[in-house]
Structures are given as structure tokens and as C-alpha cells.
Design brief:
Layout (H helix, E strand, L loop, with lengths): L22 E3 L2 E3 L3 E4 L3 E5 L3 E9 L10 E8 L2 E5 L2 E3 L5 E2 L5 E8 L3 E10 L5 E11 L3 E7 L3 E3 L3 E10 L5 E8 L9 E6 L2 E3 L5 E3 L2 E11 L1 E11 L4 E11 L3 E8 L4 E3 L3 E12 L4 E7 L3 E5 L2 E3 L5 E3 L2 E9 L3 E11 L6 E11 L7 E4 L4 E5 L9 E5 L3 E2 L5 E3 L8 E10 L5 E11 L5 E4 L5 E4 L9 E5 L3 E2 L5 E3 L8 E10 L5 E11 L5 E4 L5 E4 L9 E5 L3 E2 L5 E3 L8 E10 L5 E11 L5 E4 L5 E4 L9 E5 L3 E2 L5 E3 L8 E10 L5 E11 L5 E4 L4 E5 L9 E5 L3 E2 L5 E3 L8 E8 L11 E8 L3 E3 L4 E3 L5 E8 L6 E7 L5 E7 L23 E4 L5 E9 L9 E7 L2 E7 L8
């Protein structure tokens, strides 16, 4: 084997955790790589991955694929994971870039698991290591979390114990108190569950999940507790925690009044109590002293001076009732109920006076009787109140009663007030709501009313309503008459009165005429619809009279139409006959907009966008024959996903002020013009020895749209590991859009590993290769020749002999009897280590001292032609 670099090591001792790997070739000690495992005897749990680490040292920089690893589970069952990927047993896989590596073993059987690990370098040199895993049945997690990091003497906190398991088991827990390290004061405490005390080292069965225990502080200091949980499968976990026990709780206390005022004897003064706990929590008792006579009510109970009053922490309210006139000094004291009592005090001064018997005085503002017209709003002018002791108490006046200004009548308002001594006064005000609004008469029918001479006249009548009385049409009286046989003007008078006496009259004029008025007939539609901007041509009308006949030419027309302004216009046609009867008819001309706006797209349609680019809509313009530029009113619907190729439709819509709408669409085409990317797995250039094995590690391919398209890679090229040469493997792929990736090429160099060292007689060649050895002497009288091949463990591989036995003269081999010397050779298979050691000698006869023997060694296409003679043996 040719070597570009060889390390000669002597007197070197390696000390590490597990193994150092070496190979011996001939007489030289060559260190080609060294593997160090962090540990070889490992504790693990069934069905749980356990990490192991190792490193390869002494081999320089390590790239992915430079080394391979395989494993064989010889005892137990399990599998390995490399970079989270499960490795197939007894198959070599490439190691990633080194030199540090981590593998995970997942044991599936309990007990001792033994695994043989094999590491192989690029020259197929291997080293084996044995890892032993001590696999327990299962694992679980255990934790104890206190609800607080500390408490106080006689204070209690929760201890939250939790267990999470992998497989089913039962569990027992116990605890011990330990002396905290570097703590000057060690406290004491006790532990219980639901009010039941648990002594240290007592085994308690505990369920899976969460459990709550309680810790009570007994003396001040730091307490350290160690909990140990053991499963029924023999696995134990511990948890240690520290709890600090502080002094007895402290607090502050205040007592304040709602207001600073003078109180009436036998009335209550509200006292606000506040207890603020500054250290820990407790229960509290309050008592008080007073300089005068009185008592306190708290939580519905009455307490005399000196009584103990249970009081709650936080804010609470009490009431002090002074029973005698004068100053009352109140001194309060609150004690907590802990082992060491803490007291806090507060004082108040209150003034009480006896009640008075003089009621307050109310004075009305404005008149005591007010008149309001029905339907008008009423604003109460109010009143004032004063007291000989309390002073101005106008703000305390209450008013009862109400005024409905929509209903006539007399209403009473009562003004009342009470002083601080309970004396009351009331005063009344009268509000009169009166009706002074007359009814309203509505004439039914025409006014004036026209009756043809001789026709009957039926009076349409009238209606009457009153703001108070409502419908009083039945109370209407009619005066006046109509003579239908005499042409003339007649007046009818309608009169009505409401209950309040308000009277009203309305008149109707009735005209008795001699004959019928003329008739006007419109030509064309009425109403007539005209498009905006179109010239208006009046279709006109005709007129006829029962006496005068056709009087169309006498029609008078009035009114105009603006065809450039939308809207309704009225054209009036009127005509009079010879009797003075006039007829008038109108036509409505509606100038309307029924023309839709026009939308014009900006930019191209379809519009192309490269995938992933920002799409900026070029927009559109809109114009209307009436409204003009409506571009600002355009609405756009539809979306464009620039990250997904395809055609997207945007719809532009607009509507003019007349409701005429228009739409237009644009196609936005998102195209994919980005080619995929191919990434080699492993090195781009790989060197292997002739006759070795090569498995292509392949490549991956990803596309900005299609994602992982590794399965679509097309690989071309091949490698003949038996013929030294440089080979290439080409990788190509195309995405769904037809974009071709840049071709990626891997180079594989097959180097020859066949060599015959004439000096040492060592032949190196691939294991299993066929070796053919042939010999040729110089003929009769040349001498004897022997060539032998043996393995490194001294097994005979073959032997060749020529011209053997010179006694009595030269005797060469002649197997077929044709009188010609034969050559002698042999054939063998290369051992598994690829090494064969040759020895050979040539012994000349007495007359040919310079004779020799030629020989040839052929293996795997390589031929080594050599000679040996006297003094030129194998090895030299």
C-alpha cells in the first residue's frame, strides 16, 4: 500500500477514558486515528433515549463522510439515533463534520444492553468498541414547590408535590429535616396533610399528578427539607428545598372619622378602622376608652368601653353613639393574637350636643300660585330653607307632586325640609294649567268649490280638532246655502267651540258656473323621461270645448326644461273657453341619467408579477357623462397572492350618482422564474481505494414554490471501484414551472491500492482479489527457484518451484514430456486484510552462477514483472 504520510510512534502511552486505536503494518506502528468515548458504562431507562459522546482525534480536519459508523446490539434490544435519525443496525452510515459527535441509544429491553460500535475511516480501516447500558424499567419526574419561599412562627404555607411518569408504577414519599449549610440560625417546623401531622422518615403513598401538603413554621430560622420518592420499580428521586421562618407578624392601625362635625347626642358617628399587615397575618382584638359616656356598634354588636371587640384585618366600619353632650375622647388599642403580642393605638375627639325643637323655615321663590298655558313648559322657581342651628339648608329641600302642562287643571307642589335635629317644615305651591287655544277647522274638498249650473251640490263638510278635547267635528254648525239653479258665488260658514269656550269659524266659497270647462289632452307620455343632454322637443297637447270645439291653438304653455341638469321639470298647458272656463294640465319631464360610467385600466392586462415580488396595482380611471371624473370612487375586489403562481382576477367597479354601474377586470399573473437549488449530501469530492465500496449519499433539492423536490432529482454517471480513475455524478432537477436548477457535480476518485514491494516482498491488494503467480527459469542448468506466499498470520497461500533437484545434473520440470522446460506458478485469493508476504530464492548450479528466474504477479488488472537471482532473493 502506498502511503503519502506515515507516523512512526515509539514509547508513546495514551491515557484517556476508553480506547486508542492503532494498526500494525510490517514492523512499523502507524497511528491513523484515535477514538475517545466519554463513558462506556452508562445508566439508562427503557424506551428513553440516552446520549453518548465520542471524539475522533489525531486525524486533522474531519469533513462529513470522512468516517462511518455502524453498531451491533449483542445483548439486549435497542437502536441508535444520529442527529435524531434512526440508524439501521449493522449498516455503515456517514458521520457528519467532526471531530465531536453525539449518538442516542433507545433501549427497548430491561437489564444489561451491550452494543459493539465500529468506526471506519476512508481507507476502510476499522476499530471496534463495546458500550454497556444498564437499563432500568422506567423513569419519572418529581418536584416540590412551596407556595411561598418563607413564612413566620405559627404560619402555614402549601407544599405542592408533583409526579409525572413514563409508564405505570406506584410511589412512596418521605422527608427528613437537614441542617442548612452556611446558615447561622436553623429554624424548626412541621409537615402535615389535610390536618394530619406526618413525622420525618414516614413513608406515605403518593399518587401520580399533583398533591398538596402543608408546612407550619415553629421557630425562627432557615429550615431545609429533603424529599425522596421511590417508585415500585425501584427508581428514586430527591428534591431539597429551603423555607425561611420569620418573626411574629407586625401591622399598622388607624381610626378616622367620615367628617369633622358636631354630632347630636344619641346619634351615631361613623368610625373607619384600617389594619394593614406589614409582616405575616394574624387575628386581632380591639378595645377602647372614652372620656364621656357612649358605646360602639361593630358588626351588629354593641360594645362598652373596655370590652374586647374582634376586628378584622383591612378596612372596616364601626359607629360611636355619644349619650351625653360635650367632648368625647376615644382611645383605641388593637392586639394581634400571635405568640408575641403586638399592640397598636389610635385616638379620636368627637363633639356632641343635645337636639333642638325649633323647625326650619321655608320661603317660596316666586308666587305661591302660578298659572301656565297648556302645552307650555313649567320650570319650578324653587324655594329656600334656613334653620336656627343648621343655618342654610336649602340643599336639603325635597319637592313632592308634579305638573302635567298637557292636561288643564290645578296641581299642588309640596316643599319639605328637615334639620339635623329631625324638625320638619312643609310649604305648598298651586300651579294652574289653563286652555286658551281655540280648535282648528279643516275644510274638506275644494275651496272654492265649483258646481255646474243645475247640478246637485253635496257639501263635503269639514272636520274640527282641539288641543284638549280632540275630535269635535260633531260640534260644527253650518250657516249659508247654495242655489245651483242660479249662477253666482255662495259662502258657507263652519263654526265650532271647545269645552273651554274657545270658538273658531272657517268659510267655503261655492261657485255655480254656467257650463263645462274645456278639456286638454296631452300628446305623448306623462311623465316624460328624457336622457341627460338630449334636446327636448315638446310633443304638445290638444284642447276641445263642448261649446267652442277645437281650441288647441289657444293653449298657453309655460315652464322650461334644462336637459343638462338632472331633475324633474313641469310644463303647464292652460286654455280658456268663451265662457271664461279655464282648464290647466301639467306634464312632468324627468331629465335622467341612464348612461353607465366608463372604466379604463392603467397598465397592461394581463399584468405579470414575478413570484415573491411586491404587486403594485397600476389602477384604473373612471369617467361619467354627468358626474365627470369618478376615479376616486372606484372600488377594487379580489386579491393577489404573490407567493403562489397563478392567475388572479381583480375587479374594478364604479357607480355614478344616478346608480348606473360599470365593471372591468384585470388578470394578474404571478409567475415562477426562480430555479430550484440542489445541495449535495456529503463532500463534493470523494476519494476511495480501488476495490473498495462506494454508495452515493445523494443530494437534496428545494424550490421556492414546490418546496422539497429531492425525489425529482435526476442522477447520471457511474463509478467503477475496480478501475482507478476520476468519475463524476451529475445531479439535475426541474421545478413544476419548468425552471432548471444549476447542475451539481460530485467527483469520485478511485485510487489504486495494489502494490508489490520488491524490497519487502509485501503485496497489498483488495481482499478477495485473485492473484496469479507465474515463474520462468533460464532453462536446463539455470538452477533452482522457489517462491512462496503467506498471510500475515502465516497461513500458506501458495508455492511455486522451477528446475528443482540438481543432483547429478540439471533436472528441470517437463510435465508434458515434450522436452521443454516448464514454468511453475500458483493462484490464491487475497486475505481479508489485503496483505500477502512473499519469500523467494534462486540457487544456481555450479556452472551458471549468474543465472536467474523471472516471475510475474498479476492481480486485479495490475502486473508486476520481477527477477531474482543469487543474492537477489525475496525479500532483499
Amino acid at each position: 500500500m502506498k502511503k503519502s504520510l506515515q507516523y512512526i510512534v515509539s514509547g508513546l502511552t495514551f491515557v484517556f477514558l476508553v480506547f486508542a486505536c492503532t494498526k500494525e503494518i510490517t514492523e512499523d506502528l502507524v497511528v491513523f486515528f484515535k477514538v475517545e468515548f466519554s463513558e462506556t458504562n452508562i445508566d439508562a431507562f427503557v424506551d428513553t433515549k440516552e446520549e453518548s459522546s465520542f471524539s475522533i482525534v489525531g486525524a486533522g480536519d474531519i469533513e462529513a463522510g470522512d468516517y462511518q459508523i455502524k453498531y451491533n446490539v449483542t445483548e439486549g434490544t435497542g437502536s441508535y439515533f444520529l442527529n435524531t435519525i434512526e440508524v439501521v443496525e449493522n449498516e455503515f452510515v456517514d458521520l457528519p463534520e467532526g471531530p465531536e459527535y453525539t449518538i442516542e441509544y433507545l433501549a427497548t429491553s430491561i437489564g444489561t444492553n451491550k452494543v459493539t460500535i465500529t468506526i471506519k475511516d476512508g481507507l476502510d480501516r476499522e476499530e471496534e468498541f463495546i458500550l454497556t447500558y444498564n437499563v432500568n424499567d422506567t423513569d419519572f419526574t418529581f418536584d416540590v414547590v412551596p407556595s411561598s419561599e418563607g413564612t413566620y412562627v405559627n404560619g402555614e404555607i402549601d407544599l405542592n408535590l408533583s409526579i409525572a411518569e413514563i409508564s405505570e408504577a406506584t410511589y412512596e414519599v418521605q422527608y427528613v429535616f437537614k441542617a442548612p449549610v452556611d446558615i447561622s440560625t436553623q429554624g424548626t417546623g412541621s409537615i402535615g396533610v389535610d390536618g394530619t401531622s406526618i413525622e420525618p422518615e414516614t413513608l406515605v403513598e403518593i399518587p401520580v399528578g399533583d398533591t398538596s401538603w402543608q408546612f407550619t413554621g415553629l421557630t425562627v430560622g432557615m429550615v431545609e427539607i429533603e424529599f425522596t420518592v421511590t417508585s415500585s420499580l425501584g427508581v428514586s428521586k430527591t428534591k431539597t428545598l429551603q423555607i425561611e421562618i420569620g418573626d411574629t407578624p407586625d401591622f399598622t392601625f388607624t381610626a378616622t372619622l367620615d367628617s369633622d362635625t358636631v354630632y347630636t347626642t344619641n346619634s351615631g358617628a361613623v368610625v373607619n378602622f384600617v389594619i394593614t399587615e406589614t409582616t405575616g397575618t394574624s387575628s386581632y382584638v380591639m378595645n377602647y376608652r372614652t372620656s364621656n359616656t357612649g358605646n360602639i356598634m361593630y358588626n351588629g354588636e354593641t360594645y362598652q368601653a373596655g370590652d374586647n371587640i374582634p376586628i378584622q384585618a383591612g378596612a372596616s366600619i364601626g359607629t360611636y353613639i355619644g349619650t351625653s353632650e360635650g367632648e368625647h375622647t376615644l382611645d383605641f388599642r388593637v392586639d394581634n393574637s400571635n405568640t408575641v403580642t403586638v399592640s397598636r393605638e389610635a385616638s379620636l375627639i368627637l363633639n356632641f350636643r343635645d337636639p333642638d325643637g325649633t323647625p326650619p323655615v321655608i320661603e317660596l321663590i316666586g308666587s305661591s300660585e302660578i298659572t301656565v298655558n297648556i302645552g307650555d313648559s313649567f320650570t319650578d322657581p324653587g324655594a329656600t330653607a334656613s334653620d336656627d342651628i343648621d343655618g342654610d339648608i336649602s340643599a336639603n329641600i325635597t319637592v313632592s307632586g308634579s305638573v302635567d302642562t298637557n292636561v288643564p287643571g290645578s296641581y299642588t307642589l309640596v316643599y319639605s325640609v328637615e334639620d339635623s335635629s329631625g324638625n320638619t317644615t312643609s310649604v305648598e305651591r298651586i300651579v294652574n294649567v289653563v286652555d286658551n287655544i281655540p280648535p282648528v277647522i279643516t275644510i274638506i274638498g275644494d275651496n272654492p268649490f265649483v258646481v255646474r249650473l243645475g247640478d246637485a251640490f253635496n257639501d263635503p263638510g269639514a272636520t274640527a280638532t282641539d288641543n284638549v278635547d280632540g275630535n269635535i267635528s260633531s260640534g260644527i254648525t253650518l250657516t249659508g246655502s247654495v242655489n245651483v239653479n242660479v249662477v253666482g258665488e255662495y259662502v258657507l260658514t263652519y263654526t265650532v267651540s271647545d269645552i273651554a269656550g274657545n270658538e273658531v269659524s272657517e268659510t267655503r266659497t261655492v261657485n255655480v258656473i254656467s257650463d263645462n270647462p274645456p278639456v286638454i289632452t296631452l300628446v305623448g307620455d306623462n311623465p316624460l323621461e328624457l336622457s341627460f343632454g338630449v334636446v327636448f322637443s315638446d310633443p304638445g297637447a290638444t284642447a276641445s270645448d263642448d261649446i267652442d270645439g277645437d281650441i288647441t291653438d289657444q293653449i298657453q304653455t309655460s315652464g322650461t326644461v334644462d336637459v343638462n341638469t338632472l331633475g324633474g321639470y313641469v310644463i303647464t298647458y292652460s286654455v280658456s273657453d268663451s265662457s271664461g272656463n279655464t282648464t290647466e294640465v301639467t306634464r312632468t319631464v324627468n331629465v335622467v341619467d341612464n348612461t353607465s360610467p366608463v372604466i379604463t385600466l392603467e397598465g397592461t392586462n394581463p399584468f405579470l408579477v414575478n413570484i415573491g415580488n411586491v404587486f403594485n396595482d397600476p389602477g384604473a380611471n373612471a369617467n361619467d357623462n354627468v358626474d365627470g371624473n369618478l376615479t376616486a370612487d372606484i372600488t377594487v375586489s379580489g386579491i393577489v397572492d404573490v407567493n403562489t403562481p397563478g392567475d388572479y382576477v381583480l375587479t374594478y367597479s364604479v357607480e355614478d350618482f344616478s346608480g348606473n354601474s360599470a365593471t372591468i377586470t384585470r388578470i394578474v399573473r404571478v409567475i415562477d422564474n426562480i430555479p430550484p437549488v440542489i445541495t449535495l449530501i456529503g463532500a463534493s469530492t470523494i476519494t476511495i481505494l480501488q476495490g473498495g465500496s462506494y454508495t452515493d449519499s445523494g443530494a437534496t433539492a428545494s424550490d421556492n414554490v414546490d418546496g422539497n423536490i429531492t425525489a425529482q432529482i435526476v442522477t447520471t454517471g457511474n463509478v467503477n471501484v475496480n478501475i482507478p480513475a476520476s468519475y463524476t455524478i451529475e445531479y439535475n432537477v426541474q421545478d413544476a414551472a419548468g425552471n432548471n436548477a444549476t447542475e451539481v457535480v460530485r467527483t469520485i476518485i478511485v485510487e489504486s491500492n495494489i502494490n508489490f514491494n520488491r524490497l519487502t516482498g509485501v503485496l497489498t491488494a483488495p481482499a478477495g482479489a485473485t492473484v496469479e503467480v507465474s515463474m520462468s527459469s533460464g532453462g536446463t542448468g539455470s538452477g533452482n527457484a522457489v517462491i512462496e506466499a503467506r498471510s500475515t498470520n502465516n497461513t500458506n497461500l501458495g508455492i511455486g518451484i522451477t528446475c528443482w533437484g540438481l543432483t547429478g545434473g540439471a533436472q528441470c520440470l517437463d510435465a508434458d514430456g515434450d522436452g521443454s522446460d516448464e514454468t511453475s506458478g500458483f493462484t490464491f485469493i487475497m486475505p481479508t486484510d489485503g496483505i500477502a508476504n512473499f519469500t523467494g530464492s534462486h540457487t544456481p548450479d555450479g556452472t551458471s552462477i549468474n543465472s536467474g528466474t523471472s516471475f510475474s504477479i498479476q492481480v486485479a488488472g495490475e502486473t508486476f514483472n520481477e527477477n531474482m537471482g543469487p543474492g537477489n532473493e525475496i525479500p532483499q
